[in-house]
Amino acid sequence: MEGGGNMQNFNYHSHTERCGHAVGSDEAYVKEAIKNGYRYMGFSDHAPYRNGDAPGERMRVEELADYVSSVRKLQHTYQDQIEIRLGMEIEYFEEQLDELMQYKEEMDYLILGQHGPALYAPEFYDNHSDADVLHYASLIEKACEKGLPDIIAHPDLFMFGKEVWTEACCEAAHRICASAQKHGVILEVNLNGLRYGKRKLGEEFRYTYPYRSFWEIACTYDVDIVYGLDAHAPQKYADQDCFAIVNQEILYDLPLKFRNELRFEDRNRGN
What we know:
This protein is of the alpha/beta class. It is built from seven helices and ten strands. It has a single domain, classed as Metal-dependent hydrolases (TIM Barrel, Alpha-Beta Barrel). 31% of the residues lie in helices and 16% in strands. Helix 7 (241-249) links the parallel strand 9 (224-228) and strand 10. It starts with 9 loop residues before the first strand and ends in a 13-residue tail after the last strand.
């Protein structure tokens, strides 16, 4: 499907208030998804890590049980109106591998949303070095090699503050796409990048991400693509404009392989 399509009937990238930078009750997200015609949705809040507490960035370990209980309850309550799945947005760090493998067993699906080289690395969003970009790609490769992610979120996030698309960026894109192809992992066009608006970065005036050069490379690989709302508020489910903007201004004429449907197995043993 060249340049993407219209709205999907599924979205597996939604957060909750527990991460500290999203708003709205869990149920409000479900109601908005139903209201706006979604048939499948998933919660994928930022995973907690022991010794990795970062207020305002991810949920705390002590909130995990409530997160699971809440989503499973909503799954049952709204089962006749929408199919809900329980997931997490993880980041790959070797020292957290035991926890990550446990999440892989317990969740219906995992999204890999690498945000930098460390558990808390806000400096990654500045004009970081080529070495940082390649390290970012290496972490995604390692996560895929371990069989962790079902979806790679915002794989072009390394262009957030990058002023120039360099040879290292090209290499990183190829490595990420090759890894996704090899391990059967879906790539996500993240629609949340639009919320930052356009800004002057180097010689370009653009959205921080999605970044077209990455997706030009992606379409040369045999990888499935989905959109991700990356919803941090229930109202994001009503946002139809984001699809049109991305397709018309960024992905136009690209022969990307978009999924028309995506469903994950329910691993809830009691259901």
